[in-house]
């Protein structure tokens, strides 16, 4: 329920706080006192678009803050969905700025307008003449009827949903194979060709580098041969009088050996030169061998180029590297296997779908029958309430549409809409087509008297629900509001003394002038102040007769609530 409401700089309201309780909270005041400003503020908490014209003249921003307590699990689930912790209170703050930078916060966390609407829907419902009305949403009608039907409908719905989930699962898997046989066969043939082509090529990791290295060897064979021959001559000599490094080292060893007996310090040098000579002789032999082996096989060179050309074409089709080509081969191999196996799986799924569809239709029909049975009871309950509210010629019908497999949803095959007519001889119409605000408000109250405990909305707001009502019907209206107040918190703006007298809490909205400005304020009244306000509602003036009538109304209201 709404525990408190604080309003700052909204039109004529400078700063005002209201502490609210359970039961029926009534707001009264003279025409133009500013009752609509309270409703406007509540509308903003429900996610209505902000209008900066609501900001008080001369102020840069306005603020509305509401504290809700005692909410149910649905609200907790929404809080969790939006990343908020489960707390005992919900504080909604909405700021309006002249520069258009509006702000919404819930327990200090920034919210969007759509998030606020989702959260506030189960917290508060506002009913006024052409204002936000949850019952006007056709999407809510089926949920209301199902809740009214209780376990009998919920058990049928549970059985239906098991079939529905199984059916949609089969449909989903079938849709994954959503290509005709001709297209499937074309895809299989293409994949088979690609798989065979890649497998026959048999490219392996590092092969491209090897192919390119051999190409370089072929292209530069002459230069390589000259380099090997020259290097060999420099190291080992050419055998025709040209001395290489090995010959020079040999001479150096001979020279040093001739003096080693006189100067033994050269012996380590001679050993090192001997080692170098052996290493250089081995190098010279290796160079000669490489030179002898250097031979360009034209056939092999041609095959090498063909292999590189093939790889180039594969890279254009299957991947920019051999690794990517092989990865693509792995992927299409799996796809090919799935397609080959899909034919059998599709046939199996189609057979399953036929069986499950029969069960789904069967459960949907049973669910519809259960709903129609409770719809009749629901219609009669609403008609009784409407009669009590002076609308004995009104009509109310729960209209059923749909009913085929094409209309399936997780809630069944049914499409339900509440239809209403206020006058004798008129056809029932969708609720949104009902023109009279007063009639609409009474209809809403009739429905709420039946469904308030079902819908579980913590706070119901009625704005001038008494439009066009007086006498006995006004008394009935007051009794209905009081009954709804037993199941949910009710906030009602009214002009009727009958409704005001049935309030569990009474607030008076007044407009005063001072310091060159007009302001609106709200105060809670009780005792003599409340009697005076109800007397004013009765006759427009406070007289002994109107005061006596006011006391009588309050006494009768108290007796009704006690009973």
Please give a handful of descriptors for the protein shown.
563 residues; alpha/beta; Rossmann fold; six-stranded antiparallel beta sheet; six-stranded mixed beta sheet; 15 strands
Describe the structure.
This protein has helices at about 35-45, 75-80, 115-120, 140-175, 180-200, 205-220, 220-235, 245-260, 265-295, 300-320, 320-390, 435-455, 470-485, 495-500, 525-540, 545-560; strands at about 1-10, 15-20, 25-30, 60-70, 90-95, 105, 110, 125, 395-400, 415-420, 430, 460-465, 490-495, 505-515, 515-525. It starts with a strand and ends with a helix. The chain has a domain at about 1-125 and about 455-563: 3-Layer(aba) Sandwich (Rossmann fold). The strands form three sheets. A six-stranded antiparallel β-sheet has the order 2-1-4-5-6-7, with helices on one face. It has a six-stranded mixed β-sheet with strand order 8-12-13-3-14-15. A three-stranded antiparallel β-sheet has the order 9-10-11. The mean pLDDT is about 90. The chain is of the alpha/beta class. It is about 55% helix and about 15% strand. α4 (about 140-175) runs antiparallel to α11, α8 runs antiparallel to α9 (about 265-295) and α10 (about 300-320) runs parallel beside α11. The chain has 16 helices and 15 strands.
């Amino acid at each position: 329920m709404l525990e408190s409401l604080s309003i700052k700089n909204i039109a004529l309201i400078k700063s005002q706080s209201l502490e609210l309780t359970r039961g029926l909270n009534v707001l009264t005041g003279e025409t133009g006192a500013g009752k609509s400003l309270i409703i406007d503020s509540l509308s903003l908490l429900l996610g209505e678009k902000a209008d900066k014209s609501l900001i008080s003249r001369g102020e840069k921003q306005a603020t509305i803050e509401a504290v809700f307590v005692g909410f149910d699990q649905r609200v907790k689930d929404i809080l969790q969905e939006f990343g908020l912790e489960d707390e005992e209170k919900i504080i909604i703050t909405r700021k309006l700025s002249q520069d258009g930078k509006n702000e919404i916060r819930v327990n200090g966390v920034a919210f969007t307008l759509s998030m606020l609407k989702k959260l506030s829907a189960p917290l508060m419902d506002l009913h006024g003449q052409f204002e936000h009305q949850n019952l006007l949403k056709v999407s809510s009608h089926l949920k209301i009827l199902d809740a009214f039907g209780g376990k009998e409908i919920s058990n049928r719905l549970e059985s239906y949903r098991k079939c529905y989930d199984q059916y949609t699962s089969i449909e989903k898997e079938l849709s994954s194979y959503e290509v005709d046989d001709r297209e499937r066969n074309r895809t299989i043939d293409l994949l088979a060709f690609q798989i065979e082509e890649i497998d026959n090529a048999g490219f392996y990791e590092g092969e491209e580098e090897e192919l390119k290295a051999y190409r370089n060897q072929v292209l530069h064979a002459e230069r390589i041969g000259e380099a090997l021959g020259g290097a060999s001559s420099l190291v080992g000599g050419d055998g025709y009088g040209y001395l290489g490094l090995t010959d020079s080292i040999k001479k150096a060893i001979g020279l040093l050996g001739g003096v080693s007996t006189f100067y033994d310090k050269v012996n380590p040098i001679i050993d090192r030169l001997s080692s170098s000579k052996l290493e250089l002789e081995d190098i010279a032999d290796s160079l000669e061998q490489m030179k002898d082996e250097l031979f360009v096989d034209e056939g092999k060179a041609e095959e090498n180029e063909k292999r590189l050309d093939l790889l180039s074409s594969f890279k254009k089709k299957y991947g920019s590297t051999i690794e990517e080509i092989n990865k693509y081969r792995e992927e299409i191999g799996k796809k090919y296997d799935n397609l080959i196996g899909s034919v059998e799986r599709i046939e199996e799924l189609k057979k399953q779908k036929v069986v499950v569809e029969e069960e789904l239709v069967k459960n949907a029909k049973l669910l519809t029958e259960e709903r129609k049975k409770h719809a009749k009871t629901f219609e009669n309950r609403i008609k009784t309430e409407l009669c009590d509210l002076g609308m004995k010629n009104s009509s109310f019908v729960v209209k059923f549409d749909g009913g085929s497999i094409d209309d399936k949803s997780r809630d069944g095959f049914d499409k339900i809409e509440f239809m209403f007519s206020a006058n004798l001889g008129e056809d029932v119409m969708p609720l949104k087509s009902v023109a009279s605000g007063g009639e609409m408000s009474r209809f809403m109250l009739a429905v709420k008297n039946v469904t308030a405990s079902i819908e579980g909305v913590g706070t119901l707001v009625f704005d001038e629900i008494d439009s066009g009502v007086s006498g006995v019907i006004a008394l009935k209206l007051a009794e209905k509001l009081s009954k709804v107040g037993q199941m949910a918190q009710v906030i009602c703006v009214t002009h009727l003394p009958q409704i005001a007298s049935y309030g569990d809490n009474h607030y008076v909205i007044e407009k005063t002038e001072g310091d060159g400005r007009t302001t609106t304020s709200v105060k809670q009244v009780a005792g003599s102040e409340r009697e005076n306000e109800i007397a004013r509602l009765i006759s427009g003036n406070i007289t002994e007769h109107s005061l006596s009538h006011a006391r009588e109304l309050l006494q009768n209201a108290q007796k009704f609530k006690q009973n």
